[in-house]
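Homework-ish question, so no full write-ups if that breaks the rules, but can someone show me the predicted structure for this set?
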Amino acid sequence: MESNIGPTEQLRLRFGEDIFIEQETKDSIVSLWLPLDKLKVVLLFVKTELPKPFQFFYDLTAIDERSRKKDPLYPSTYFTLVYHLFSFERNDFLRLKVALTGEYPVVPTAIHLWANANWYEREVYDMFGIKFEGHPHLKRILMPLTWEGYPLRKEHPARATEMGSFQLWDDKMDREQAALQFKPEEWGLARHSEDSDFMFLNIGPQHPGTHGVLRIVLQLDGEDIVDAVPDIGFHHRGAEKMAERQSWHTYIPYTDRIDYLGGVINNLAYLLSVENLAGIKVPPRAQVIRVMMCEFFRISSHLVWFGTFAQDVGQLSPVFYMFTDRERVFDVVEAICGDRMHPNWFRIGGVAQDLPIGWETLVKKFIDYFPVKLKEYDKLVLRNTLFKARTVGIGIFTQDEAIEWGVTGAGLRACGLEWDFRKKRPYSGYEMFDFDIPTGNHGDCYDRATVRVEEMRQSLRIIEQCMKNMPEGPYKSDHHLATPPIKKNTLKDIETLITHFLGVTWGPVIPPGESMICTEAAKGANSYYAISDGNTSPYRMRIRTPSFAHIQMLPYISRGYTVADLLSILGAMDYVLADIDR
Amino acid sequence: MDDAIIHRLWIIAGVLAGLLIVAPGLIWLERRMLALWQDRYGPNRAGPFGLLIVLADTLKLFFKEDWIPPFADKFVFVIAPTIVVVTVLLSFIVVPFAPGVMVSDLNIGILYFLAMSSLGAYSIILGGWASNNKYSLLGAMRGAAQMISYEVFMGLSMMGVVLLSGSFSLNTIVEAQKDMWFIIPQFAGFVIFLIAGIAETHRLPFDIPESESELIAGFHSEYSSMKFGLFFVGEYLGIILISSLTVSLYFGGWLGPDFLPPLLWFCLKTFAFICFFILLRASLPRPRYDQLMEYGWKIMLPIALLNLVVTAGVILMYK
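A: Not a homework solution, just the prediction itself:
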């Protein structure tokens, strides 16, 4: 089989011409519809037999199509299952879509092909009620076990006010409490082995080491971890559901709060998809401003991680120094965006405002200040023998394992794969910047730490280039869908006035289509799969976050280590609960 | 009553009062010092330099609900925190603060101290066990292992000093340092003693029984109010004890140039070590439990033994 032809041709060669229907999408990702009965063999084929296979299971989600405007060309009327696969060798995504019929469809599982399909399938089940045949543990993952209905189905109410007043009758309370009872068997944990009784330790959801409402059930033999089962969903706020009732513009502040340490990096991931759908070209100045702010937030996010990681292994002081430095980042962010952690500052088509007068001085001050501190932290933390003793050789995974489990970001780079979406699939003008991709060799906690620290240096380089080469020009596109629209000509010509009025009151109407652009967020690959049916709000918004995939790997990499090591592993993972649960 | 007994009662009262004032004062000192090293202010509101935070903290501890969890073993749960305070306070009997200012000059002073600190380990084990909480149990387990193993070479490290001075009495040991502090011939012994001492007081980097970020508060997770307060005070008393012993054994105790009274010399030296303890807490991460044990048995113990053998050999040669 030829390897230089595209995946569509290869799939057609193998399975026949009429099996696949190709769909045009704005993001130029190959999107193929295939019948449900072929799903199993096609997935097997693209993972194992296809030359340059799609070995990375990037995302799985579903779309409830039942309230979409009927279109004879659109092949799905009930539910659509969407697989996003990625190939590092091809540097390309593959989108496989399956039309499902019936109210509660059943689909074969893909766990035997990709280990990380497990949680994605559970999420689809939890949110849509789509069952996966052969899944070993198909239970709710984000919603409480006692939840009624499937939240992302269109008939499920989006607001509490649509649900009637909440009453906690005694029987309901008993049911809820009974569901909270811990029975190891339900978690797939045995109580005894041949020669010992296990102890179950419940870490979280309130625990200083989990950095948020994460619960981990540990199966312990002495202090050795036999198994660890993460329990997530405590921070679930239905961000994807909210998108369906927000306008394209008013959804931006919600994205800030997905990876709440990442600030505008989230805005960017969302807006790239939306702008791509709308066909907006962002002017160069806006692009460079965006890149600069994203890199500031990358530094800020990494600083929080660095400090808390040191604290997790028992070092009390660094976190204070690093939070102080983070304040310096926020000084700049605040001066430019007007807010610190969640500035909600990017807009469809550009940014909210032009840079303030004197911004260069602020940025320059930070660029001069920070490298010295980083050097100090190297001495204080990274070169500390005790710190090394706690992190070197702990939580190792190889490149293959990382790909198998959907690891992206610093975790992947620490295993030696030089992969950064900013470099490999540049967006927002990252191709214009000169920076390196730091990598590690061993894939242990220490390497993940050194990679992140080096990334801060690279971010600083990018910021410096932004500062020196900031282009002149508008900070927002003059496209009619850019929001809020430019007001300059509104009082001169009626067409502009109408567009402006509609854009401000209803919000922009984004043309139908779908788009997903993968970005390198502070914690790994982050993307928004935006689906528009030509309305003022998204028809469906799927958020693929890195932390979800990373925390799924926790049991796999923590087995055999001790409780103390678990804290190192968690610390080095760099997750944020809102990024896991959305 | 004869004068000697009255004199001794005065010393006991003085030592007790002094320690019970200094120990809570250390809370303030530690918080301020940590703050200084961590670019913060620390408690600076209540009273001058925030000193009254000590009073506020104590009052708060007294008025907190004294909670004994229903699943705990009540008797042991109550007894455990008192053990740590009692054993540490009793250890101070043998500490020579200044010439004549000493509760009792036992001729087995060092052995007595070792015995007391061994008893102190019970406090952690019993506290963790009686709490009937898995985190506490893990903490207690770690604490027991740590304290027992570090006591082994703590004892051995002190034998060098005993050999040099020919006595177990701390008073004699201090006087034997008139010409030269034992830190010079016994440097290895000093380092081992200090490390073992930190482990004995389970302070960072050896706070493995507590390890905040893993076991929350370890063996005292379930304790509240003054029972928690006792663990807290016990820890600070432990710091003072180890500091004052280090000073007596290796830094000439109360000895010093004449321009300051001996008691003041003793206090100054001890204070320096207390600050060192706090600085350690501000700067070092915590090793893992098994690494700590490995370090103890594979490195510290051989060095302690070697130190003892070499010291004994040298003394035999010159006799």
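Now go work out the reasoning yourself. Hint: The mean pLDDT of chain B is 85.
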